[in-house]
Amino acid sequence: METAISFLPVWIVMFPMFMTLVIYYVEQRSEKMRNALSVGTSVVTFLSVLMLYPYMMAGEIIEYSMFQLLPNLEISFRVDILSFSLALLSSFIWMLVSIYSIDYMCHEHGCNRYYPVLIITLASCMGIFMAGDLFTLFVFFELMSLISYVLVVHEESLEALRAGYKYLIMTIIGGLALFFGIIITFELGGSVSLGGETLITVPSTLAFFAFISFLIGFGMKAGMFPLHVWLPDAHPVAPSPASALLSGIMLKTGAYGLLRVIFHVFSPGLLQEAGWMIILAVVAIITILLGSAVAITQDDIKRRLAYSSVGQMGYILLGMSIFTERALIGDIFHIFSHAFMKSTLFLAAGAIILKTGKRSIRELGGIGRLMPFTMLAFTMAALSMIGIPPLSGFLSKWTLSLGAMDAGLPYYVLVLLVSSLLNGLYYLPIIITAFFGAEPGHEHEQVKISEAPYKMLIPIAILAVSCLLFGLLPTNLPFDLSRKAADFLLRGGF
Amino acid sequence: MEFYLLFILSCFIVAPFLPRLSEKRRRGVLVMLLCLMIFLAFYNLSGVELHDYSVLEELEAMGLAPLAFTAHPYARMAVFGFLLVGALALMYGLQVAGPKEQAVSLVAIASAVGIALSANFITLFLFWEVLTFSVAILIMLKLTPHAVSMGCKFLIFHIVGGLLLFLGIVQHHSASGSFVLEKPAAGLLFFVLAIAFKAAFLPLHVWVAWGYPAASHATSVVLAGLTTKVGVYAVARILEPHPAIVLMGASMAVFGICCALLQKNMRGLLSYHIISQVGYMVAGAGMGGYYGIDGSLLHVINHMLYKALLFMSAGAVLLTAGTEDLHDLSHHQGDKQVLSLWRVLPVAALGALVGALSISGVPPFNGYVSKYLLKKAMYGAGPAETMLMLASIGTVVSFCKFCYFAFVKGRVPLQRGLPVSMQAAILLASAACVFLGIYPHVVQKILPYHSSLIVYNAGGIVSALTFLAVGIAVFVVLKKTLDRGINLPAWLSVEQSLYQPLAFSLKACCHYITTFDSSLNTAYEKAGGTARILIEKTELFDGAINEAYEKSGDLARRLADRTEQFDGALNEAYEKSGKFAKQLADGTQAFDASLNEAYESSGKLARRLADKAAQADDTLDDLYEQSGQRSRSLWDRMRGRPSDWNIRNLNFDSFLIALMLGLFLFILVYFTGIR
């Protein structure tokens, strides 16, 4: 039994990878089978992750080493509470998105390419979260980054190809920086394993280079200023379910990597002593303000959401630069709540675009009366984004603010609030036009716009309700997980 | 306490389903809730003790505080007002308000009650935001573009206020470590600002004039009662008494009156009066002391009553006459036979009169009581006292204007009758105004400091009547001017001079940042371009190297040609020398033959010698063969067995490497298939 559990991480990563091949084989014959298998795979992956729950709650750490490539360089898996939290979140959202995809993608071309890629990205994402050392993490990180290119360019329009090219270039730069960082870490620490001792213990020029390299590598993925430029291009052009995953989950891999780097490669004490965290803090503040301010000027709904993601990732980056416990709880909880909020927003926007074909916010007048449930979900997530109680965004912002105050940094709170106001300024007009705005006159086209099909509505509804439930609900699984993970990182992480 | 929470909860639960019910059922539910509200208001009035109550204790572990409720003495006053006026407003809108408006009104009233009862900042903030959103939705539900844009402005204003409150609470918590609702330990500035938004402090008052006149006539009654009064309650409850607050209140009172006099729109006028009256309350709360607080909170209740009454009257005019513009009402061109509005709308006119007398502080209406207390509190407060007196006179003047132009001079044909529920609400509210004026002791038990409510003495009545007389006199003098209307230049408006530049600069800032962002993008692209140019240069350099090789190749070929020529010449020279050599060889041959002969003779001797040597050689050969055999067997042993090279010895690692390689190949295949 013990060995079976320790094999579970490998199973979670390898199962979707294997299923990709199966789907690839099956899809030549039956579309229905393909859809069913995709959903099935993501459901099984989610359940497999869920099976780890009792072990994680007992504080166990599951390790499994697959094989050694070179001395001290191996492919290994390691699941602790932080990995588990993110893997659970990701597989949950993946499951909902793959259900959503069935109806969304049925009007699209190239589904036979979309589904296998969706599933193999899931596998690589699980690989990132469950990696036991930097090398494994790097391998899966690159795999995910490169494969999600296929999702970005799915539309095959000129715009998509351009955005995809930019994404690819940035990804490669990030990957190389990451590689550089890992090499230095290996040189300084003699190992790249994430489980054991802190790898770099002495601040030196070389260590600083490593830190900067990690910052570039993971920060690129997390949409950190000034490396965010690919994000507002790449996320809107992808099909909506893919945008939801790109914004909701894949950005978080960057944040996850940085958390690992800060707490396992370096240590908070070292980073504070060396004063390197100030770089991350400054960049995060710029990211927050820039993302929020630019979002206001965007008219394309998905582009606005993408810029909003930039701002929100700034919160997460800012949160990890403060080493108080509450800030870290808020930080990890914001990963959760942003994933719920942003996937709701993108999926709802996708439903609207699918039904109306309109992406411009000015044209969305009265859509709330035609698609009440979709817009209600959108509203819930948007209000959560602004930080209105009792939604989950409020709780994460609240905890982050208290954490910043614990560290004696009231200006950070001010930044958070200015950004919240800007969030309000760009989300409220969408909601207000949708519910109270005049409908554009249909003189020529009398197309009746109806509510989205239920297979799309259910995932949206589940996510929107999550935004509400994980706000002020007393038994709050994501909050418990964040608290445990923060505790683990600060006390048991090294 | 549980009753009150149950009420709040039932409002929140009922509201989403209300629009789906049939007309009849909806009214039934509303009447039930209405009765419940009136019951709760009077239950509270009886002075019965209300226990503290808290739910969701688990939130404590999440760094928050449980939702806790307590009946603070100030809260009881506010709750009484909110419930009573809420009930009247709901009754007013029973027949005319849309189902969604009714539902959101319920939420707004419930959240106002929630704010009043909250025991800690978390609960306060929660209901604060709910109130903000529900009021904004109430304004926007009119669905006209004007109402929507006003509601949007309102919402943004109050979101800023809410965020400031958030900041204040966070600072307070980090300084004091507790969320209990008390005077803030830190972040006072943010609390003041946050409350300033809700209580419409100058120059943040603009939302009152934006929001209230824009809403539909049924909902503006609900609005008139809630938002600003919540602000006043928060001033009394959270802020310390301070002379600056008194001064702010007094200037709000004067400023509100001045603006109200300029208004042409009935509800616009009333909205500015809200600012003015809230000024009185803020001044009282800022003074502190028994009379200050009691007067202020009593004024909250009274003001809610008569302001709701006035909004009801204005709404009745709007509903029946189709306009609320005082100028249009009094200068209606057409049939001269049309009667004055007070004759055709007696109930509305009565309501307006009672409301006007109340707000002017004329005995025996309720405004007199609270203004009397406030006057007592303000005694000796310096300039503020004088300002409030001026404001009192201004109030009389503007309400003369209100009643005179709307009901006496107003002659417009009615488009429809006044529904029963509206009439009933107006009459009830009027009765309440008079009742509270004549018999104010009913609220004695819930007054926080139990001030004496024996207010009818000669001095008070005389001064109140003096204000009334002066006000009417001023109105008579100014009648013509007020009729024409006074138009101030646009730049004088706070909105134009302060908020539009602010909004513009914010927008400009955002655009600037967007430009920065796109320039960042361009910079990356330029860097890419530079890299490409660099690569092209490298290619040129590469070409040059190639050329150099080619040139050197040419050189080498020419060199080779030369070498060939040289070679030919050499060849010729050799051939020539060959002939000479042949001749030489012939000579040598002859010499050789003679030499051969000589050798043959010596050969015989040599053969004999060779035979001897051969014998010795045979023995040596045998020796070599023996040693050869020995070394061959050693070689055999040194060579490996071929059977060792077997597939079984390929281990699992190699297999996995192969698998990974295959995977990457698969990806590669994918990439190539994209375009």
Number of helical regions of chain A: 20
Portion in beta strands of chain B: under 5%
Please estimate the helix content of chain A.
over 70%
- Encode the helix/strand succession of chain B as letters: HHEEHHHHHHHHHHHHHHHHHHH
Strand content of chain A: under 5%
Give the mean pLDDT of chain A.
87
Number of helices of chain B: 21
Extract low-pLDDT stretches of chain B: none
Question: Unreliable segments of chain A (pLDDT under 50, ≥5 consecutive)?
Answer: none
Number of domains of chain B: 3
Largest sheet of chain A: 2 strands, antiparallel
Calculate the terminal CA-CA distance of chain B, rounded to whole Å: 69 Å
Based on CA inertia axes, which overall geometry of chain A fits?
Answer: globular
What structural category arises from helix and sheet content of chain A? mainly alpha
User: Within the largest sheet of chain B, what's the order of strands?
Assistant: 1-2
What gyration radius of chain A follows from the Cα positions, in whole Å?
21 Å
Shape of chain B: elongated
Multimerization state: heterodimer
Greatest chain-chain contact: A-B, 60 and 57 residues
Radius of gyration of chain B: 51 Å
Strand order in the largest sheet of chain A? 1-2
Structure commentary:
The complex is a heterodimer of chains A (494) and B (675). Chain A is mainly alpha-helical. Chain A has a domain at 282-440 and 449-494. Chain A contains 20 helices and two strands. Chain A has helices at residues 2-26, 31-51, 53-57, 81-105, 111-130, 134-152, 158-189, 205-221, 231-237, 240-265, 268-274, 277-296, 301-321, 325-356, 367-370, 372-386, 392-406, 410-436, 454-472, 477-492, and strands at residues 62-70, 73-79. Chain A has a two-stranded antiparallel sheet with strand order 1-2. In chain A, strand 1 and strand 2 (73-79) form a beta hairpin. The longest helix of chain A has 32 residues, at 158-189. Chain A is globular. The two termini of chain A are 28 Å apart. Chain B contains 21 helices and two strands. By secondary structure, chain B is mainly α. A two-stranded antiparallel ribbon of chain B has the order 1-2. Chain B has three domains: 1-240, no CATH class; 243-487, no CATH class; 494-534. The radius of gyration of chain B is 51 Å and the shape is elongated. Chains A and B meet through strand 1, helix 6, helix 12, helix 17 and helix 18 of A and helix 5, helix 6, helix 20 and helix 21 of B.
